[in-house]
Amino acid sequence: MSDEEIRRILTQTKRIALVGASAKPERASYEVMRFLLENGFDVTPVNPGLAGQEILGRKVVASLAEAAPLDMVDLFRRAEDVDAPVEEAIRLGAKTVWMQLGVVNEAAAAKARAAGLAVVMDHCPAIEMPRLGLSHGH
Q1: Longest alpha-carbon distance in the chain
Q2: Under a CB-based contact definition with an 8 Å cutoff, are residues 46 and 29 in contact?
Q3: Mind listing the pLDDT tens digit for each residue in 51-79?
Q4: pLDDT at residue 136 in the model
Q5: CA-CA distance, 129 to 138, in Å (whole number)?
Q6: Could you give the angle at which helices 106-114 and 83-92 cross, rounded to 10 degrees?
């Protein structure tokens, strides 16, 4: 995916569902969620085990459906565990599926692309935004 496409996604996205959100500050998903909130995104943490609690002042929901409507689904899951959230993202009308660093699932990506979604794999918005000169929180 080109820098141009990543820039377009990050500038047009408003609502993000962060799947695999953690309440532990040392976890990457917590750091990235904080970064996204600081940069003006509307982030809903998704984690069935923490549903009803709050992370960084945002209420945790158990499912992607509860996070809808959404523009992007940001996946902090192992590559083998992204199929279900990708299918749900398609069903809910998300525009983008973003798989975090180290997460690559070509079959799930192909399914999302076939449904018209943009797919970013093995990247992190908290790295891409400063690199592309888009972040204003850091």
Answers
A1: 38
A2: no
A3: 999 999 999 999 999 999 999 999 999 99
A4: 66
A5: 10
A6: 10
